[in-house]
Amino acid sequence: MTTLTHSSDTLTRDALAVLQPGFQGTTAPDWLLRRIGEGLTSVGLFGRNITSPAQLAALTAQLRAERDDVLVAIDEEGGDVTRLEVRDGSSFSGNYALGSVDDVDLTRAVARELGGRLAACGVNLNWAPFADVNSDVNNPVIGVRSFGADPALVSRHTAAYVEGLQSAGVAACTKHFPGHGDTAVDSHHALPRIDVDFDTLHARELAPFRSAIAAGSKSVMSAHILLSALDPDRPATLSPQIVTGLLREELGFDGLIVTDGIEMQAIASTYGIERGSVLAIAAGVDAICVGGGLADEETVLRLRDALVAAVREGELPEERLADAAARVRALADWALRVRGASGPGAAVQEGTAPGNGSAGGGTGPDIGLVAARRALRITGTIEPLQEAPYVASFAPVANIAVGDETPWGVAAELAALLPGTETGTYGGENTAAEVLAAAGERRIVAVVRDIHRHAWMTAVLDGILAARPDTAVVEMGVNHAEPAGSPHIATYGAARVCGRAAAEALTGRGA
User: Fold this and answer.
1) Which of 80-84, 444-448, 504-508 is least confident?
2) Is the pLDDT of residue 172 over 80?
3) Which of 4, 51, 96, 339 has the highest local Cβ count within 10 Å?
4) Which of 157, 176, 188, 488 is catalytic?
5) Is residue 452 among the annotated active site residues?
6) Does pTM surpass 0.85?
7) 188 given a catalytic annotation
8) Whole-angstrom distance, CA of residue 438 vs CA of residue 238
C-alpha cells in the first residue's frame, strides 16, 4: 500500500471534505461559510433550513458564493418525508403509492419533476431514492417510504427514480445499503439486527441496489444495521466486508458512499460519533452525514479532529481519507459541470424536460397529484358526501425520519371542498365513545395510519363502526389490514396530495 505524505493543511482539508454537516437557520452561519473556505465540500439541508423556494435558492447561492462546487444535499423523498414542503405536506405522493401504481414511466416522471424543483433551488444531491424492500410489515421506520415488499418491483422503480432524478441534474443517493426493510427496530433509536441467510439477502435486500448501480446512481447511503450473515460484529456502515467487499468489489459500485446520520443511536450509543466516523471511513465510506440532530460547529470540529488524529496515530490510512475526499470532490465536480452546462433545473440526459413529460394521464407540476389519484384503492361503494363530515384522525407516534412537523390527513382537503368540516385527533388513550360524541350527527370519516401495527387504533375503529357502519375509513399508511368501513379508501401514503385524492373521491369532486 502506498503511503502518502500530507501537509497538515491538506490533511485537515481532506477531513473537512468528507463531512456533510447540517446547521441551524435559514441563512448560512458564519462558521459554516468559514469551514467551506477551509475545505468543507458538502452541506446538508433539513426542514428547519427551508421556508420557501426563493429563500432556499438564496441560501444555496450564499453557499456557492464561498465555493461554486459545493454539494448541497437534502433528504427529500417526497411523500411522508419532505423537506421542501415540511410545513404544508408534499406535492408528491411518495414511493409506496408509486409502487402500488407500478408504472415505471410515472415514477421516472415524478422523480424528474422533483429533481427539477430541487435543481431550480440550487440543491444538487438528494439523499434518495429509498431502495429498502419493506419485507417486515411491522417495520416502524420503512413503511410507505418503500416502493413495496416485492424485490423485483422495488428494483425497477428504484432504477426509474434514479434515472428521473439525475436527468434533472440532481445526484441520487440510493439508501439504505444493504437494506433496512426486514427489521422491527428503528436505527434512529437502537441498532437493528437482521438474521437472514446470505442467499436471501442477495435475492431480496441487494436486488434494488444492483438496479440502482446499473442505472448509474451517483451515490449510495449505508445503513446502521447488523447483518449477521455478512458481518456479525459491526453494523454495515462500519463494516469493511459490507462497504468495500460487497458494495465496492462485488457489486462494482464506484460512486460516493455516504453514511446515514452518524448521530443516530445505532452508532452514537454504541461507538460514539467520533470513533464511528473514523471506522466508517476506514471501512470504505467516503462521506459522513451529520446534522439531522447535531447541527453545530463543535460537531464538525470534533469529527474533523477525530479523523485527523486517526491518520496521525496510524489508525486510519492517509490514502483512505484522501481517496474518500477525492470521491466527494469528484461528485462536486460532476454537479458543477451539470449546472454549468444546463442551468438550474434543466435536463442533462436524454428525455423529456422537467414538467413536460407524459406519465399516464398527467404532466408537469401536477404529476404528484396524478400519481396520488392513480394510487387510490377503494373497497365498497362511495356515496359522495353532500354535507360537511366529522374527520377523526388516529395519530400514531411519528418516526424521527418523518417527524411531527408535517401535516397529514384528509381534514384540510375535505374542508376546502366542504366548508364546515370538523376534525379531531385521537391517540391510544381515547375511546370510540369520545369520537361518536364529538361527531354528533355528522357522517364520520376515520383516518388511520398503519392500523395493522396499532391494536388501540383497531379497537377504537371497531367501536365506531359498530355504532356507525356508514363510517368511511381512509388508510394512509401500509395497506395491510383487512378493509373496513363504508367505503374503505387506501391512499398508500400520507402526503398532502394523497389527502387531496382521498377528499376528491369522498366528495365526487375530483378532476
Assistant:
1) 80-84
2) yes
3) 96
4) 188
5) no
6) yes
7) yes
8) 52
